[in-house]
Automatic annotation (TrEMBL):
CDD domains: PLDc_CLS_1, PLDc_CLS_2
GO molecular function: cardiolipin synthase activity
Name listed for the protein in its UniProt record: Cardiolipin synthase
InterPro entries: Cardiolipin_synthase (IPR022924), PLD-like_dom (IPR025202), PLipase_D/transphosphatidylase (IPR001736)
Gene name as annotated: cls
Transmembrane regions listed in the UniProt entry: none
Highest classification ranks of the organism: Bacteria, Bacillati, Bacillota, Bacilli, Bacillales
Top EC group: transferase
NCBIfam families with a match to the protein in the record: bac_cardiolipin (TIGR04265)
Main location: membrane
UniProt keyword list: Cell membrane, Membrane, Repeat, Transferase, Transmembrane, Transmembrane helix
EC number of the protein: 2.7.8.-
């Protein structure tokens, strides 16, 4: 009798937990529909000005993009985010490159620093960041810090977060769980964006924490990629931050030259020799379709020579699998880098199922052995590179808010090619016999993990 009562209580609590999470999901879906409507109304002048500055037709002629014009046309047609030119870009490998560059730019800030990360910890490197932000506040610089309610739960639940607000730092928490002990996986803000004075932006795969500087013994060496951007793309990164900030806090930034500086036609002409053509690509439930997935799909379908992909989590849907296999049938070289060591065992074991669908077609899969591979990169032919926060999994494609940068520039593509080749030196190629001769317990773990695939 006692056992029956315990079972009923545990079952009842489990049902309540599931009902709570489901209710939160319904609530958030409705809220994000309202966010989508608001996003369309905000900051129209920025998009209009950039559209007026460079049309798709002009870009095709100036940048000789004929092999891949369908990719940029699709992105622009489905996001209403225009092409940007005059962008200067620096690739930052790992935390030891990102944090010094980020701190240097914060030191130079005159008007504002806007920070959005999925995860901000309360540890050594995070406190270095906080100290710089507190110093800039004292100098009269506006500081806005936006973090995800689940990804940054250790920070927002502690005293340090309260201390930041007391120092004058404006803080926002994106979609915090109403009951902190029952977090939910979906609908997270997985973006990593920093904008400084509307002139410099950072985006990529890194969050803020000591683990991103290889200080976590569980993950060891943390391999990741970020970018520093100057130029017109910064305006669109600012727009993403501003719409997320407005949804979270209700504060709407003014569409003025302090937050959204303008580039004159003379500046455009003077910097033609350094011009990089790019597209900022936001995705999430405030978009009309899964843009992150669809932009990858169309790039894969249009590839002529190669598709090189790097991702920490590989749990795609069948459309991505079929597109990659079809690319191999066309003679396109397909390489995929994934980690050997993982921080998500469900995604890790589930990925074996998808590897088995790719290896027979000739897709080359490489396991990164040096540490934990967390970079999110793509290289398509010699014309398109992508760096951002998007994982090749269903959460990034369908549930999370993400941001990426498509770059149409041969010079940048050569840099990304070099980075891929360097990473491949720290990989071992996965052979079909290894995969199809796995022990029973790994095969069982794979099948069980597949039950979670729609949420991974």
């Amino acid at each position: 009798m006692t056992l029956l009562i315990i079972v009923l209580i545990v079952t009842g609590l489990a049902v309540l937990a599931v009902a709570y999470v489901a209710g939160q999901h319904v609530y958030l879906r409705r809220q994000f529909q309202k966010k989508a409507q608001a996003d369309q109304r905000l900051f129209q002048r920025i998009r209009h000005n950039l559209n007026e500055r460079l049309s798709v037709q002009e870009a095709e002629q100036r940048f000789k993009l004929e092999p891949h014009t369908e990719v940029l046309r699709f992105i622009q047609g489905n996001t209403d985010f225009p092409l940007t030119q005059n962008d200067r870009l620096r690739i930052l490998n790992n935390g030891e490159a990102l944090f010094p560059a980020l701190f240097e730019e914060i030191d130079k800030a005159q008007h504002h620093v806007h920070i959005l990360f999925y995860t901000v910890q309360d540890d050594h490197i995070s406190n270095q960041l906080f100290e710089k932000l507190e110093q800039k506040v004292q100098e009269g610089v506006e500081i806005r810090l936006l973090v995800d309610g689940v990804g940054s739960h250790t920070l927002i639940g502690g005293e340090r977060f309260k201390a930041l607000q007391k120092q004058g730092i404006q803080c926002g928490v994106f979609a915090p769980p109403r009951l902190r002990f029952l977090p939910y996986m979906h609908f997270r803000n997985h973006r990593k964006i920093v904008v400084i004075d509307g002139k410099v932006a950072f985006t990529g795969g890194l969050n803020v924490g000591d683990e991103y500087l290889h200080r976590d013994p569980n993950t060891g060496f943390w391999r990741d990629v970020h970018v520093l951007i100057e130029g017109e793309s910064v305006l669109l990164m600012q727009r993403i931050f501003a719409t997320d900030w407005y949804y979270t806090t209700g504060e709407m930034l003014e569409e003025n030259d302090q937050y959204f500086p303008t580039f004159t036609r003379q500046e455009t002409h003077q910097r033609d020799q350094q011009t990089i053509l790019a597209q900022v690509v936001p995705s999430g439930l405030d978009m009309t379709r899964p843009i992150a997935k669809d932009s990858y799909l169309i790039a894969i379908h249009k590839a002529k020579k190669r598709i090189w992909l790097g991702t920490p989590y590989f749990v795609p849907d069948q459309e991505i699998i079929e597109a990659l296999n079809a690319a191999r049938k066309r003679g396109v070289e397909v390489k995929l880098i994934v980690p050997k060591r993982t921080d998500n065992p469900f995604a890790h074991y589930a990925s074996f199922h998808f590897h088995k669908q790719l290896l027979p077609a000739g897709v080359e899969i490489y396991l990164y052995h040096k540490g934990f591979y967390h970079a999110k990169m793509a290289l398509v032919d010699d014309h398109i590179a992508n760096i951002g926060s998007v994982n090749l999994d269903r959460r990034s494609f369908h549930f999370d808010f993400e941001a990426g940068l498509f770059i149409y520039d041969r010079h940048v593509c050569r840099q990304v090619e070099t980075i891929f080749k360097q990473d491949l030196q720290d990989c071992r190629q996965l052979k079909a016999e290894q995969l199809f001769q796995q022990p029973w317990w790994i095969r069982t773990a794979t099948q069980l993990s597949l039950l979670m695939a729609p949420w991974l």
